[in-house]
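subagent[fold] <- orchestrator: predict structure for attached chain, return tokens only, no commentary.
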Amino acid sequence: MKNIKIPFAYLVLVLLVTIAGFGCQTAAPVGTDTSANAAADARAQNSLAPTRVDLRGTITRRVYDRGQVTIEVEGYGTDTRFSRYNRGYVLVTPVTQIVGLNGGSISLSELYEGQNVAILMRGGGRGNFVGLGVARKMWIEPRY
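subagent[fold] -> orchestrator:
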């Protein structure tokens, strides 16, 4: 009876190793745009912001009212590896930490349309597809 159990254990081990080896994907899936993914990778790596944030994109609208700024941010694309939302409406208050390109702090007045930003929101924001929230920390990212 012992002779039967040992070959069976080896057979199971070989089968699991084979499945694990063939289960690894070595090429990009069909239909993925690798140039867009490479640009997103470079953008996330060259930033002072963490790799994964709530919202990463370009400021498309900026409204100043009574010491607070509301911005609309449009994401770079459908790649959600680096941000939780592809689009968002964010309230930036005077207590929000805003980090510039050189790593220093900047003011609300230095935010403008067309600027690339990465944002962490208080509580992670609200919404399923479009992020709504108050910015806790914000990083200005280089243009590409």
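orchestrator: received. Logging for downstream: Residues 85 and 128 are 8 Å apart (CA to CA). Residues 51-141 form one domain.
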